[in-house]
Amino acid sequence: MVEFKPLTYEALQVGEEFVSDPQLVSPEDVEAYAFAVDDHHPWFSEDSPFGGPVAHPTFMANQALRLRHSRYIVHGGLHAKMEFEFREPIRPGMRVRSRGRVIDKYERRGKPYMVTEYVTEDENSTVLVRGQFTQMLFRD
Amino acid sequence: MAATTSTSATIGEKLPDLVKDVSQRRIDAYSGVRPRSIHTDESWARTKGFPKCLAQAMMSTAYVSELMTRFVGAGFVKGGTMSMTFIKPVFAGDRLTVHGVIKERRPEDDRTRVVVDVWCENQSGEKTAIGTASGLIAG
Q1: Regarding beta strands A23-24 and B18-21, do their DSSP bridges make them parallel or antiparallel, or are they unpaired?
Q2: For residue B81, which phi and psi values (nearest 5 degrees)?
Q3: Which residue of A has its CA nearest to B50?
Q4: B73 contacts in A (CB within 8 Å)?
Q5: Which chain B residue shows the shortest CA-CA distance from A134?
Q6: B54, B48 in Cβ contact below 8 A?
Q7: Does the beta-carbon distance from A78 to B74 stay under 8 Å?
Q8: CATH superfamily of the domain spanning B18-23+55-138
Q9: pLDDT reading at B5 higher than 60
Q10: Which parts of chain A have pLDDT scores under 70?
Q11: Residue A105's domain is classified under what CATH number?
Q12: In angstroms, rounded to a whole number, what is the distance separating the alpha carbons of residues A60 and B69?
């Protein structure tokens, strides 16, 4: 049972860790993502150099970005920076989850920011994507 | 669309631009429609000081990813990197142009890593995101 609480700069702790629930990568979700970003590369639905279709490289980015939603009530903020290392292709049929850790928080020009490092893995703990992101928190 | 892999690309060479119309429908599909979301609830976006809904900044990373996959091919899907800073909001209805200019080539194992300066501009010519991306090519 998760006890959700509002996300505030004060409540957030550097070193805090998050883990998402696993998500089954379905062909329909890959197609929906392709629609959302208007990128219908044939590798997303047909064969690719990796043997079979793959998802868009940034397909699971929102799973990582929403890690803090696994514990906090978040009514938004602004995304300031994003880094990716694409280690392995994401394929339909994988069960994928992201883990993250808050590595910094700071205030700049009166606005609060948090920095999270993350990794997205398949069910065998193979790293698919890793990186870090910086988000500005809304005060209310 | 076949991926374009350029083993002869030179530093300073410009990649073909990518143009993206960022509709509210695509933002909804990307972010999921939720109340109290600056991406999909216009009245909430206004309470946060924005004239209309904002596209998730992550959509711009997907556009850069498309630019790089077209250019580098499989060496971006496996072995690619991207580092972006979001400097201006992208609003529903904006038209973004994604640019790339080759910044560096360096050997990495038995291949070459090509580093590209990338940025997105809106229809007014304002930069909305800047950064670098890289991928691996043969040679």
Answers
A1: unpaired
A2: -135, 160
A3: A78
A4: 49
A5: B85
A6: no
A7: no
A8: Hotdog Thioesterase (3.10.129.10)
A9: no
A10: 140
A11: 3.10.129.10
A12: 17
Sequence-ordered alpha helix ranges (H) in chain A: 27-36, 61-65
Q: For residue B91, what are the β-bridge partners?
A: B54
Look up residue A28 and give its amino acid: E
pLDDT at B2: 40
B85, closest residue in chain A (CA to CA): A81
Closest CA to B50 of B19, B27, B78: B27
Instruction: State the residue range of the domain holding A77.
Output: 5-137
- Chain A contact present for B82, CB below 8 A: yes
A3 vs B: CB within 8 A: no
Confidence of residue B9 (pLDDT cuts 50, 70, 90): confident
Q: Report how far residue B10's alpha carbon sits from residue B68's, in angstroms, rounded to the nearest whole number.
A: 15
Total domains present in chain A: 1
Nearest to A98 by CA among A117, A81, A82, A73: A117
Q: How far is CA A65 from CA A39, A51, A68, A113, A135, in A?
A: 21, 28, 8, 14, 9
Query: Which amino acid is residue A70, in one-letter code?
Result: S
Q: In which band, very low, low, confident or very high, does the pLDDT at B6 lie, cut at 50, 70 and 90?
A: low
According to the model, what pLDDT value does residue A10 have? Answer: 92
pLDDT score of A140: 63
What average pLDDT does the structure give for chain B? 94
* pLDDT of residue B139 exceeding 60: yes
Chain A hits for B85, Cβ within 8 Å: 80-81
Q: Whole-model pTM? A: 0.95
Crossing angle between the packed helical segments B24-31 and A27-36, to the nearest 10 degrees: 140
What CA–CA distance (Å, rounded) separates A131 from B80? 12
pLDDT at A128: 98
Q: Are strands B95-108 and B18-21 parallel, antiparallel or unpaired?
A: antiparallel
